[in-house]
From TrEMBL:
It comes from Desulfotignum phosphitoxidans DSM 13687. Belongs to the peptidase A31 family. The keyword Hydrolase applies. The lineage of its organism: Bacteria, Pseudomonadati, Thermodesulfobacteriota, Desulfobacteria, Desulfobacterales. One of its GO terms (molecular function) is aspartic-type endopeptidase activity. GO terms for biological process: protein processing. This is Ni,Fe hydrogenase maturation protease HybD. Pfam families: HycI. It comes from the Bacteria. Keywords: Aspartyl protease, Hydrolase, Protease.
Amino acid sequence: MKNKILCIGSRLVETDKAGPEVYDRLCRKKIPAHTDLVEGGIAGLNLLCHLEQAGVVVFVDAVSGFTRPGQMIVLTGQQVQAACPKPVYDHSAGIAYLLAVLPRVCQGSLPEEIFLVGLEGRCDSTTLDRAADASLTMTRKNPVV
């Protein structure tokens, strides 16, 4: 069982590249042995395999309508699902849909905790660094034994 940091988004879309930009920053840091860093891109449901039998899962992704542009917000998995009570079932389904499907298809144990580090709009370098640090902090506070 390992903790996971899943950075999601598309490097080709200006409004969706926050996750990959945080991934790049995390690649330059020391990642604890009990944590896997994954560039999830736009893998969608293909990310489910990273969630089974995981400890703490931290998604890093662009968000819209959660905070002011250029800001970071941290949400629990429950808060993500509550914000999207009727998940969309198309290409733009997002993390809420992934979390809704997870208990239905998971063959192993569910993650102990799930967080979203959301980045609203275009973020400056300082905010992207803060998001990388926050992601690591959440996994360091919850080492898998």
